[in-house]
Design goal:
mainly alpha, 138 residues, elongated, DNA-binding, homodimer
Chain lengths: 138, 138
DNA sequence: GGTTGACGTTAGAGCTGCTCGAGGCTCTAG
DNA sequence: CTAGAGCCTCGAGCAGCTCTAACGTCAACC
């Protein structure tokens, strides 16, 4: 299977696939005579797992690591580790959800004030909030 | 006021403040004889507005632009524009909230399966989903 | 007068996770 | 023969900071 087909099947782009390879997150596939990458089913599975894990919100490195272990036969251990990772991701996620809905309330409030014709000073007020530097949940 | 104090007051870091200046998003402040930056109240207000807007989820450029307009006296216009920006941000935000809670449901589901002792193959399944490349809401 | 420690300065690299473009090769269909 | 789709590599670019190295400044204490 060539890179375009693979990318399409996995719902990603050829650019991303090559990126993963360049960064050593998946092994480089065989090459055909013309230099084109040729992917096996195994390759596709591993990459698919990586992508699936990414979509669950794990970091790229984490996902690559788990995908590697699993495709080397230690799927059971993976599922143990996955379990705890998922638990902590869910905690983060709930946190993030709270933040975002808090943000929405602030926006709604500001919207209402602006709509009422006020251009209040201070236009914005920087309350004491937690400010995350953690991009891991996007 | 020096940079450390300013950063603390605004709940940010000296690094970030210098970053904004380097990128021309806020004007460079006066310098003391020793070369230290000296911020006036005006400087602080403008920077504070920028930071507040950032925290409302606006892009850095957008925030800088509005902060600039406002600190040049066109606060009323700013509040008009802000109104429409906020409306569209809220739309994005709702979308993002839906996504995240959907993700949470997926995680919960997977968690339950793993907890039940299954190391199911395929461990993960890449369903058809929307996959955003839009980082603007973090 | 010497030292410590907190603060300031700069230029520049690094982070995440891709995305995109330039410039070129290969293959298939018409 | 040519057009177009797909592949190749290399390298830059994005947001929005964060951090480091190597240095200067200043007040306080001994």
């Amino acid at each position: 299977m060539r890179i375009g087909t693979l990318a399409q099947q996995l719902g990603t782009t050829v650019h991303a696939v090559r990126f993963y390879e360049r960064h050593g997150l998946v092994p480089a596939p065989e090459r055909a005579e013309n230099g084109y990458r040729e992917y096996t089913e195994r390759d596709a599975e591993r990459l698919g797992l990586l992508i699936g894990l990414r979509r669950l919100g794990l970091s790229l490195d984490q996902s690559a690591l788990l995908a590697a272990s699993c495709s080397e036969g230690r799927c059971a251990e993976v599922s143990d580790e996955l379990q705890s990772l998922i638990a902590s991701k869910r905690t983060e996620l709930k946190h993030r959800l709270r933040e975002l809905s808090h943000l929405d309330r602030r926006l709604a409030h500001l919207e209402a004030r602006l709509h009422a014709g006020a251009a209040p000073r201070p236009l914005i007020d920087l309350g004491k909030e937690e400010h995350r530097h953690d991009r891991s949940l996007r």
